[in-house]
Amino acid sequence: MSVLIIGAAGAVGKRLVRALSARGELIVAADRMPCLPEQLKSMVSASETNVDVRDAHALNRVFERHPEVHTVWNLAAPLSVETAMDPAVARQVTVGGMGNVLSAMGRSGVRKLLFTDSIGSFGARAPRRQCTARWLTENPTQDPGSDYGEQKRDCRNLLRKFALRGGDPRWAVLPGVLHSEAAWGKGTTEYALEALKAASRREPYVCPVDPDVPLPMVFADDLMRGLLALQDASEKQLREPERGYAIPGLSFTARELFAEIRRHVPDFEVTVDLCPNMSKFAKLWPDTLSAKEPYADLGYSPQVGLREVVEIVLAAHAERNPAPHFSMGMAPPEQVLPSGVAV
Q: Residues 4, 71: contact at Cβ < 8 Å?
């Protein structure tokens, strides 16, 4: 039996490939890329490239060629900022693609599907602290405040109908994903990765979000543990409505991040120039996600905090691009930069 990962070369997909391969699972990797990255090829039992979820026939062929598939991860969706730039195309991929995936699964008799939802599903009415996936199911008509959130909601509606037809859909609300790799996408929470990269290069950084707004994040290692726990759980373990779970990690403001960075790079310079879309999203989303439900039903709790994240990411950048030695001394007093913005 195999796990099909749609969007296997994406930010979450490639990590799932590694995590599942490490424990010996057979993986069918599907992606719209013409060729899988070399580092993934050796980890999968089969690959399906040039697969666009907007093409129902292409998806049907994938399932026909791989009748051994018993679990599907649908990760095909643009990030928040990308969706804001072209909502129509994003809807075709995110919502239209989900409909095509579920239809192909129905034809093939595959029941289990996992979907990565997002903190972008929460709008201004959502609780600021200890927010749960349950809140989304209990407030299905709340305004998430963005096309991105609306599209995630439409996907949950499709999953609800799939469950009524006998399917086993499960979804995880993801915060911003932090990692130590060299590249990433254009989501709102990626500002933290950009800041760490700039610090590693001893370059000034322009912050696009309010430095005092906390955002929920999760380090990639914790995320994988949470997602695999959701995949592995028996149906009777999943007591939350519609089998939706937040995957909590850590929460911090940009100001807190910069202070931690300055423990290693004392002269790290930051100015603020708010990006309208990123700033809007940051203020809509909750400050923290609840850890109670994923711990009770999945046995998951986060392990990596802000100090560890900063150390890990800066060390990875330093290894790739040797730079002046990082000081482990205390940060200097708050700096007021030429722009007049103190952060």
A: yes
